[in-house]
Each structure stands twice: as C-alpha cells, then as structure tokens.
Amino acid sequence: MLKQWPYGGDMKINALGPLTVVDDTGRLLSTVPKPRRVLALLVTHADQVVPTSMLLRELWGTDLPRTAMTTLQTYIGQLRRTLATAADTDVATVTAQMLRTETGGYELSSAGIDIDLLHFFQLQEAGKAALRAGNDREGILLLREALALWQGPPLVNVEPGPLLEAQVLRLEESRLCTLEQRLVAELRLGEHQALISELVELTTIRPLHESLHAHLMVALYRCGRRSEALAVFHKLRHTLITDLGLEPSGELLRLQHAILTADPALNLTERTIELLQPRAA
C-alpha cells in the first residue's frame, strides 16, 4: 500500500503545468516572471541547496549585471512574502523553516507544502515497485494517479533559462516513461482495445516515437486489425526516412515481421514484450 502523502500542508505549489502557489482556500497567489523563475528552480530542487551561482546563471546567463546579487536577494524576499501569505504565517517563519538561506545558496523545504512534482515521483516509484512485484493492477492504478497530477507541460508559464530547460526535459521524460510503463502493463492485462484511441493520439503527437507506435501496432493486431497495424509501421517508416534519413529500429522490424507472419507469440503477453526488446548479440 502507498503510504500517506507526507507533505500534507495547507499550501500547495504546482509545477506539473503552470507554476502556481495556492493557499488553503484554493486561491492562486500571483508571482512576477523573474521571481517565478527562481521559484521554479527551487521547486525542481526541493529539499536541496540551490547554489547562488545556479540561480544567477538561470536569471542572467554569463552576462551578470553589477546589481545581480542584490536583485536576487530582492526576488528571494518577494518569494518569502508570497509563501508567507499562502501559508498564513509571517516572513520570519518562512525564512527560518521554508525558504532558508544556506551556505552558498537557498533551499526550499517541502515540509508542510504539498508539491505536486514530489507527489508524482512518489506515486511513480510506488507504481514501478508494484509492477516489479507482479501486481500489475495496483501498479496501473498508482501510475494513473501519478499521471493525473499533470495539468499541461511542466512550468508552462515560466520562461526558462538554460538550467530550467534541462529540468523541463527531465520532467517530460519522466512523464513519458511513466505513461509507457502504464501502457505496457495494460497491454499485458489484455486492455488492447481500450488503448487504441489513446495510442492513436499519442503517436500523432509524437510521430517519431517508435515505442508508442509499437504499442499501437500490438493493440491493433490483437483486435484483428492486422492491415492497420502494418499501415502504422509503414507510415512511421516513411516519416523516419523523410525526416531523419533513418530506417526503423531492429525491434520494430522484428515486430513487423511477427505481424506479417501472424506469430502466435503476439497473443502471449510476456512474449510480446520480448519481441520489442533488443536481442543478445
């Protein structure tokens, strides 16, 4: 069983979509662009000291203004006032317990704050653990709960500098990984028909993503739609060649061959997953 979410404070910070600070009444507290960028970097490194040098680089790159340190301290002060309002406390308490000054940087403590991305990672790990233990249904429920936290692209209302761009990519990759793990588990449980419309949408959004196309091919094949499964392969192959000058991977070619030959292994869930894995040399 998943443990009770430990960050059960009245205040919320959401990053899986627009970056927002929400008080216990559900009211959104406004932030301005530069302090919001600082908050985004602190949230994506919650419970870690973010060096001042990282914050300065995120805000101004290598071309630091003479007033950079003073301006950063002003932004931190603005954030502390916003957090104090959201937590219904005073700035001194926030400074001592929530957004702390540490040697060489600042740290945002998650204690007493419900931070959605931390919740996402906890649910993701619990879901993966359930799948590894062979409990697909529990794993799927946990991964679905994790994915339901997303409200759009991460930090969508923050103009990212070089460091936040990396964090956005990390979060997007984690989301996609979680989604794929859920899809594979549902295919294992024979949910292929229910997945087709979702997979069609996902492959339209990501026209070069081979694994998602492979999952769609398997789902279509299991629904007796072999010609459509092969059409998905040929469309992807054309896109890969046209856009990148690449042929499909060996894994996808093996899946195409299995569909062409009506390989019985495609109907055996464990073997189907093996068909998508690289073979030992």
From TrEMBL:
Location of the OmpR/PhoB-type domain: 2-110
Residue ranges flagged as DNA-binding region: 2-110
Keywords: DNA-binding, Transcription, Transcription regulation
Organism domain of life: Bacteria
UniProt xrefs under CDD domains: BTAD
GO annotation terms (biological process): phosphorelay signal transduction system; regulation of DNA-templated transcription
MF-aspect GO terms: DNA binding
Coiled coil: none
Pfam families: BTAD, Trans_reg_C
Family: Belongs to the AfsR/DnrI/RedD regulatory family.
Listed PANTHER family: TRANSCRIPTIONAL REGULATOR REDD, TRANSCRIPTIONAL REGULATOR REDD-RELATED
Protein name per UniProt: Putative transcriptional regulator, SARP family
Organism: Micromonospora lupini str. Lupac 08
